[in-house]
Design goal:
Elements (H helix, E strand, L loop, with lengths): L3 E3 L7 H12 L4 E4 L4 E4 L5 H11 L9 E3 L2 H6 L1 E2 L3 H14 L4 E7 L13 E5 L4 H9 L3 E3 L1 E2 L11 H6 L7 E4 L10 E4 L6 E4 L5 H8 L6
Parallel strand pairs: 1-10, 2-10, 4-7, 6-11
Antiparallel strand pairs: 2-3, 3-9, 4-8, 5-6, 6-7, 11-12
Length: about 220
């Protein structure tokens, strides 16, 4: 049976913090809530975590694993921004939308395990709007792999039990934070290889992003 930690009101009981930290520190893979659906992940600095998550997700080789950060400073340290224009776009979008449902794609910084960045060396990072998800990232050292807890082609799940159904016996910890609201996923914006581009539409509109950046976005 998968160990389950039940969390209500978004607060992790102090006695359970150590159990969550131990799971991440030992290379465990957990299921946990985000502000939309339940996520699947662990420490992005450990290659075995990236490999296990990719297998569980049936994720194609070379496709990045999204990463949550505890705060904007930690997110910025996880990427490599080469050009001044990229840095300006990053700062403006982070200030306007984080914490919140916007993922920024940039060159991966040092230290991330193979299999976390995409085949082209980029990584998607966001600071989640859910305080519990930020706390979990903090307990994982500041960064947390977080992809939706469902196999490729299946629907993401809004309850812990449904997320666990296809993963029982294959994960190390279930963090049950109650039902999540679902809805649109985070908007994904690419900041490398030219002007900013919307790589995936989502909760933050293209118009709002264009307004913040003062430029028109390409798809």
């Amino acid at each position: 049976m998968v160990p389950r930690i039940e969390i209500r009101n978004g607060l992790i009981p102090p006695l359970l913090v150590t159990a969550i930290q131990r799971c991440f520190q030992e290379g465990g893979v957990a299921v946990f809530p985000t502000e939309t659906f339940y996520g699947l992940g662990g420490d992005p600095h450990r290659a075995e975590v990236a490999a296990r998550v990719a297998v569980l997700k049936e994720r194609p080789r070379g496709q990045a694993l999204p990463v949550l950060a505890v705060d904007a400073e930690t997110a910025a340290a996880a990427v490599r921004l080469v050009h001044e224009e990229e840095k300006q776009h990053w700062r403006r979008l982070a200030a306007a939308f984080w914490p919140g449902p916007l993922t920024l794609v940039a060159g991966a910084g040092p230290g991330l395990a193979p299999g976390v960045p995409a085949g082209d060396g980029t990584i998607g990072v966001r600071v989640p709007g859910l305080g519990l998800a930020r706390h979990l990232a903090q307990l994982c050292g500041g960064l947390l792999v977080a992809t939706s807890a469902n196999r490729r082609g299946q629907e993401p799940q809004v309850t812990a039990d449904r997320a666990l159904a296809g993963l029982a016996g294959k994960i190390d910890l279930l963090v049950d934070g109650g039902p999540t609201p679902g809805g649109l996923p985070s908007t994904v914006v690419g900041l490398v290889g030219g002007p900013p581009r919307v790589l995936r539409p989502g909760a933050v509109s293209r118009e709002r992003i264009s307004e913040v950046l003062g430029v028109s976005l390409t798809a």
